[in-house]
Structure formats: C-alpha cells, structure tokens
Amino acid sequence: MAQNIYDTAEFFEGYSRLPRSRHGLDGAPEWPAIRALLPSLSGKRVVDLGCGFGWFARWAADQGAARVTGIDLSENMIERARRETADGRVEYRIADLETLDLPAAAYDLAYSSLAFHYLEDFGRLVRTVHRALDSGARFVFTIEHPIYMAPARPGWSTADNGRMCWPIDGYSVEGRRVTDWLAKGVVKHHRTIGTTLNTLMAAGFAIRGVVEFAPTVDQIAAEPRLAPEVERPMILIVSAEC
Amino acid sequence: MAQNIYDTAEFFEGYSRLPRSRHGLDGAPEWPAIRALLPSLSGKRVVDLGCGFGWFARWAADQGAARVTGIDLSENMIERARRETADGRVEYRIADLETLDLPAAAYDLAYSSLAFHYLEDFGRLVRTVHRALDSGARFVFTIEHPIYMAPARPGWSTADNGRMCWPIDGYSVEGRRVTDWLAKGVVKHHRTIGTTLNTLMAAGFAIRGVVEFAPTVDQIAAEPRLAPEVERPMILIVSAEC
Lengths: 242, 242
What we know:
The structure is a homodimer of 242-residue chains.
Chain A lengths: L8 H8 L2 H4 L8 H5 L9 E5 L5 H8 L4 E6 L2 H10 L5 E5 L12 E7 L8 H11 E12 L1 H4 L7 E2 L5 E5 L6 E7 L1 E8 L2 H10 L3 E8 L3 H6 L12 E7 L1
Parallel strand pairs in A: 1-2, 1-4, 2-3, 4-5
Antiparallel strand pairs in A: 5-11, 6-7, 8-9, 10-11
C-alpha cells in the first residue's frame, strides 16, 4: 500500500493551509496551463485520481460533465470532499492508486494533479487508466517535475554570480526520494521525463502535450514570490490521448 | 546565417580531438541508446543533418541504406567527410540548417546528432524535415539536454553533502546561451523538453521515444570518467514518426 501521508495530522494540517487547498484550482499557478490542455467536459465522464478536497471534481461538474468520480487514498480528504459537494453527479471513492481497479472504457477524461510522484509503480497505474478510458479519451496529469524531485536534498542555493540556482544530482538515478515537506519522511518516486512519456506510449497512449510549467510574466507581477520558479520547473504537465 | 563555429581553427582542432571525432560513432557513449531507436536502414533513404565527418553517413550505407545525404554547414568537415567516404551511395552537401531546403517526401529517416541546439529557429527546421519525410518515416535526433544547457554558467559544483551537483538556473527562460567550449563565444539556443516535443507534434510528428541519456553501469565500469553523467543528463534523444 502507498504511504498515506495525507492522513497524518501534521501533514493534513499543513496541506490544508496551502493556497491551493484554501483557494482551490485558482490557488495553483499551474491551473491555467492545465486548463489549456483539457478538452470540453460537457457530457463527459471524468475520473480524478488523487482528488483531494474535490475542487477539480466540482469544477468538472460545473463545466457540464455527465459524471465525475473522485478517488483518493485519504479518508480525511474524501470526507471533506463529500461534505463540500452537493452535486449529485459527483461521487467519491477511497482507494489506493497503487492497486486501483477501474471499470473498462468508462471515462472520457482521466485527470490527476500532483499525485503520481507518490506512486512506486507508475506503469501499472498507466495501464489501468488506459483500459478505463474510451478510445479518443484524454489523460491529463501533473507531477512534480523530475528536476524538482531528483536531488537527494532538494533546495535553493546561490551560484557564484549571486543568482539563485537549484543544484541537481542523481537525475538519472530513478526511485525513492525521502524528503521533509509539511511532515518528515515523505516518500516520493523520481522518474525522468523520458520514463514518464515512454511508459505512457508503451501502454498505448499518444503524447499530445508536454508542459514544464513556469509562471507567466503577469503571474509573477501579481505574485512576486513566484519569480524563482523560472529558474527551475516545479511541475510537469502531460496530456495524452487513448 | 547560423554561427559557423566549426570552421574556426580553434574550434575545429579541439573538435577533431574529441573521442567522438577520433573514434566515430563508438566514441560517443550515447550511440547504443540512439541505435536502439533507429529503424532498419536496409534500402532506406537517409538524410543526416549536421553530418560532421560523415561517420553516421558511412555507417548507414554499411547498414544497407539505398542512399545517404550528409548535410553540414562546415566546409572543413564536409571536405574531410568526402575524402574519407568511398561509398557511391553517400553524398555530401554544404548547407545551413537555419535556411535548409529539402525535396518533399524524399527520405525514410532523418537523423541528427548534437546539431539542433545551435539553431535559433527549431520550428522551421522541424517543418522542413516533416515535408521531406515519407509517411511513416522516422526522425531520430539528439541535442544537448536542456538541463545541461540552461545555466548561465554551466558547470559542476559541490553540494553541502560533498556530492557533485549541477546548479540549474534559467531553465524556463528559453533562448541564447553563450558559452566557451573548445572556443570562446559559442552560441547555443536553449529550449525546454516541452518546447522541443510540442514543436514536433505541432508539425505533425508523433512522439515515439524520449531518452534522457545516462551511461549504463557497464559503460561507467569501462570508462569511470563517465560516472558523473548520472547526476545530470547531458544529452536528450528523441524519436518521432512522420
């Protein structure tokens, strides 16, 4: 079973205070870039893998999705998602993405935000999603960018020229990374962009878009704390077609 | 016109001394990974963009290619390539990849090794190659990996834990990078992996393989100087289908 860090009190409380947890989709600077890769949701069947508090699930229903299934390992998050969702087209399910089963050809869009870097077996998940999608359906997801995740001790440093830099090591050494983020000992699984894309293609997906997210000039003007994000990407966004 | 650094005496002499210039394809550690992405060349029409001394062109002819066209901006390199090539199926042409014209549907494989990061207008080249390839043809190329190319002053550093690291800055700031490599003031053009892949897809290519090259354990055992290459990738290999 995957590590369920979200149901530890320390992590859950820290996570609940993040802008993206308090302000929903608009609290995440990468959201406009993700949205640009999404198909029209009108009448579509949608599954959100690692749905958290259900922000995306409710948004998808508002966009006219026929049915939205939110799936998360965290009982705390699913409980709050259910409490905050009044739309009958949205349902939630507690499940581990490492061992997930989904019905065949049951969805037109699989979505996931910042969940898959917690998975050890990404290939199994991708094959499960491919079977669960109808032909022509989309799979749009974000993960921590491997540049962000690779280092043994990720963090900013200062180069000789005084510029902020992000020292990388172990980029080509895939596997476990243990870091302290909101709580101690958070386990993630580093994979290169190549591995992520090749795993999708091996399962039968066609790659449709790859975005190494950086905030726009306008976003930085509105939120100067985002400025360092142009030095190294934090988030990778992928769109694939079944 | 693209900067023709290869025809300056300093660069040409330095380049001529590199293992990959002296030993050909087998002098490049990424060659086995490239070769794994190549289709059978028997009876195929091949174009090599940035062919240098013609190592690949001669190899392709040895593999049974019907016709091989090697293209390079450097008169010095084309002159040596012609001198060292006895095979009548191989021809060489001096041309700038920034303004290249190619006949339509004339090739079954377009290949390029470590040339495109010198191009300012990658999109134009990609559209030119797409038109020049037959349906189902392959486009296999390598470039310097954007992690390698992004920093204002690329180079190794030592992290607090004593491990070698590669500080990154400006990853999301695409465009000119001026570095000193074999000669002073070599101009390259940094693009993210996302931009490279999206440019290919926008021109009509389907992505077939993405490899962020790192030497294998066996390669490092045979050549210990390659060990640091696992800390950050130096070369990106892409396979696309027309």
